[in-house]
Prior knowledge:
By secondary structure, chain A is an alpha+beta fold. Chain A contains four helices and six strands. Chain A has a single domain, classed as Beta-Lactamase (2-Layer Sandwich).
Amino acid sequence: MAGASSWSFREEDAKSIHVILVEFLRESSARTALIVDRTGQMITTAGEPPHFDPTAFASLTAADFSANDQLAKMIGEPEFGSLFHQGEKESMYLADIARRVILVVLFDNRTTLGLVKLRVKNAVSELNKVFESMFSQDGARGEPVESGFLGEAEDEIDKLFG
Amino acid sequence: MSMINHAAREINCKLVYYGPGLGGKTTNLEHVYGKVAPGSRGKMISLATETERTLFFDFLPVDLGTIRGFKTRFHLYTVPGQVYYNASRKLILKGVDGVVFVGDSQIERMEANIESMQNLYDNMAEHGYDLTRMPFVIQYNKRDLPNAAPISELQSALNPGWPVSDPAKHRQIPDPIHPGELLVSQQDGEWIERASYYEAVALTGEGVFDTLKTISKLVLKSLG
């Protein structure tokens, strides 16, 4: 492999993922669910729109998860499938999906960690199915950017980076 | 791993600045942050020690705008240069689309440059990536210093080239940046390709945007 392979996230993938996330939020009374890929890119969000910079949030989430993965290996675990960060009012629960993306759940004192953990199991298993089938077809569904994109993008680069 | 998000109509590409400690990677990002219009860039995040040495990474998202209906964005990352932070360095390379190696031109830093370049190849290989087949640009920084090594020495130490296996590329390819020099050339009967390079003084911004322009165009070409 020359480099990392690209992957595309389609409209229909977004819809089926959104249905799972919305159902999970309803059952768990959590506030927001986000899907971030392991390279640090935000894929989608559901529930209350985040009031922070989602791009920065995604890069830090991926770094957090990757660092913890390495810590897991050091203590003899293949991975930590989930992480929990507890705050005074706001907390985060993170779970691995298909080894390629991360589900992040933001919740406050309207619910409990116990309920979130209970309900997240089902959501994780549903999301695993969706993403695994998405990645298994990925080679066949490569949609290159449309012609003309490159020329326009190069013009923008020249403008922006002077 | 650039991701084309058709649902959100977004394309995100990851660029990583690599190189020895105190070579100017963070300074490159700071210059970009300072010069790009605030509407076209996000917040710069630095996970640094109290003495402002990069501990984990710096991160700066830059928006190219909407092109053919796709919001196109570059995520610029630096790695910590200090040798003992290798675990963090390797993590940042995950999913990289293009690499800029920021070398320190000072003669005294030659060993550190070579060690860091070797470390880059090793870490890329551990992820299963082949640097010679990816967008890759070298920047020789600190060209203004009196103890800067000549470019020819830096080139032979850090950018000696790699064999070209594709016969279609067995022809001289001129270096568009340095007239009279070649990116692909024949040496002792073997075809060799080198990475593009730039001379820079990141503190004043010299060469910073030239480097960024070249790597981002190479990355977009690789999307096609």
